[in-house]
Design goal:
The chain has 381 residues and is of the alpha+beta class. Among the domains are: 78-133, no CATH class; 236-379, Heat Shock Protein 90 (2-Layer Sandwich), CATH 3.30.565.10. The chain has helices spanning 4-57, 65-72, 101-114, 136-203, 209-229, 241-253, 276-293, 324-327, 345-356; strands spanning 79-83, 88-92, 118-121, 127-132, 237-240, 260-266, 271-274, 298-307, 310-317, 360-367, 371-379. The strands form 3 sheets. The protein has a 5-stranded mixed beta sheet with strand order 6-8-9-11-10. A 4-stranded antiparallel beta sheet has the order 2-1-4-3. Strands 5-7 form a two-stranded antiparallel sheet. A hairpin with a 2-residue loop joins strand 8 (298-307) and strand 9. Helix 4 packs antiparallel against helix 5 and helix 7 (276-293) runs antiparallel to helix 9 (345-356). The protein is rod-shaped and about 135 Å long.
């Protein structure tokens, strides 16, 4: 069954592809128009050069009004007429600030690079050359495809940002609503269980079984408290990280397979700001996932270290590993490779670490049939 996140990913891919296709099509069409306009201006300049030649060759008895109309009709394309020695004879449509001799020569050099000059032959020994630039319309149109691409890119970024923001807002509402309702529903039965535990303890004082039962009931109460904190302002306090992890591991040891070795490697005592209840939830979740990946037999190792301002917690197992394809979406809500489960554990762990503690959690290393390493990073001052 395709998850909603895969559907959204496909939608974003489709939308991006469509936007890119529109941008490329627009770019190609606009370039085609630029080329046509450029060819048309070249033809006009050829006519202008012919009219100039005719005007110079006419005697005083010829009617020059038509030729003059042709020459004067050019009001957009900048032109410079020069001799064989590159001396400027005349010019048209050149801005006043560029009409100095030196600047006109610079324009001639520029026009040589942009358009092939038109040669006007009067005789074997007398020739003139017409240099011309691009009209303002052609220059603006040539930049237009790039403006379009930038506009499409900005629009695409905005739409993707809007989609991601909407998705995140929806997730927040679902998380908060589900968490609050879960905490509410668990509240009454947990209170009843606690009361029954106290009654049994008073009647069977010497039975150690009720001590473990009490621990589990208290754990249920802790879980309900954790759910109630989702969506609320989270209070952080500076605590001994080593001790917090030891407490979580001690609880887990009696509740996972005896064939699983659970160990902690630590070289120094580390302190950081934590919400202890929520962080223990993350450690328990990572360890339980590791235990499931090993089918009840293997090694789970938790390493504590500090590098600069980073406190690192690595949860390492020698289980089945995670494929590269799955490692990219393993933190998505609803994603799971198990036959049972909702696929919310790692998503909730990511939320707790990154949103409530401003840290990071990610798959640091994984290899099929070799194991997986999850890394948590906290930043300290």
């Amino acid at each position: 069954m395709t998850s909603i996140y895969e559907v959204r990913q496909r939608f974003k891919l489709l939308f991006s592809s469509l936007a890119i296709l529109i941008a490329i099509s627009s770019f190609v069409v606009t370039n085609s128009l630029v080329q046509k306009l450029s060819d048309e201006e070249k033809s006009k300049m050829q006519i202008w050069a012919n009219a100039t030649k005719e005007l110079i060759n006419m005697d005083e008895y010829c009617d020059i009004s038509f030729v003059q109309q042709v020459i004067e009709a050019n009001t957009t394309i900048p032109v410079i007429l020069v001799t064989q020695e590159d001396s400027v004879i005349s010019y048209k449509n050149i801005p006043e600030r560029l009409q100095e001799s030196r600047k006109l020569q610079q324009l001639v050099e520029e026009y040589k690079k942009s358009n092939t000059p038109i040669e006007i032959v009067f005789s074997d020994t007398e020739r003139q050359y017409l240099y011309y630039g691009n009209s303002l319309l052609l220059i603006q149109l040539s930049y237009f495809p790039f403006v379009q691409l930038i506009a499409v890119f900005i629009f695409l970024v905005f739409v993707i940002w809007a989609l991601l923001s909407t998705k995140k807002a929806e997730q927040n509402e679902v998380w908060v609503g589900l968490s609050k309702e879960t905490a509410h529903q668990l509240g009454t039965p947990i209170s009843s269980l606690m009361a029954w535990t106290e009654i049994f303890k008073s009647k069977y004082i010497e039975d150690s079984m009720f001590g473990e039962m009490e621990k589990d009931v208290n754990r249920l109460r802790t879980i309900a408290e954790r759910f109630s904190q989702i969506g609320s302002k989270t209070d952080l306090e500076i605590v001994n990280l080593n001790q917090v992890i030891h407490n979580a591991v001690d609880y887990l040891r009696t509740r996972i397979s005896k064939k699983i070795t659970l160990s902690i490697q630590e070289n120094e005592v580390l302190y950081c700001e934590l919400n202890v209840s929520l962080f223990e939830w993350v450690i328990e979740n990572l360890c339980k996932n590791a235990a499931d990946a090993m089918s009840g037999d293997g090694i789970i190792k938790i390493q504590l270290s500090q590098k600069g301002k980073e406190i690192r917690i690595d949860v390492i197992d020698n289980g089945k590993g995670i494929s590269k394809h799955n490692s990219r979406k393993i933190f998505n809500p609803g994603f799971t490779t198990k036959k049972r489960g909702w696929g919310l554990g790692l998503s909730l762990a990511k939320r707790i670490i990154e949103e409530y503690h401003q840290g990071k959690i990610f798959v640091q290393h994984t290899e099929i049939d070799k194991g997986t390493t999850f890394r948590i990073i906290f930043y300290v001052q």
